[in-house]
Amino acid sequence: MKLYTKTICPKCLWVKSELQRAGLEPEIVNIDHDEQAKQTIIDAGFLSVPVLEYNEKFIGDVTEIVSQIELIAQ
To answer: Residue 14 belongs to what domain range?
Structure first.
């Protein structure tokens, strides 16, 4: 599980807090410092973060990410 984020991103902070609350520890990838990761999410069709990569699927909608976190944590 990977969470693609940026340095200044309120939605990213929210998703990180939800992951922490659920006891999940994904790999955090800051696209401000990783050009290849940035290209990965662009190639997947996303132009903003946060993006969660889980089971080879990319999720970019924050509400859907939080729902997925709740499912994984069960």
So the answer is: 2-73
Give the tens place of pLDDT for each residue, 20-48. Answer: 999 999 999 999 999 999 999 999 999 99
pTM of the entire predicted model: 0.93
Q: Give φ, ψ of 72 to 5 degrees.
A: -65, -40
Q: Which two tokens stand for residue 3?
A: 């969470």
User: Is residue 8 within 8 Å of residue 22, measured between CB atoms?
Assistant: no
Q: How many domains does the chain have?
A: 1
The token pair that represents 1 in the structure block? 């599980």
Dihedral sign from CA coordinates of 7, 13, 19, 24: positive
The CATH code of the domain that includes 68 is 3.40.30.10
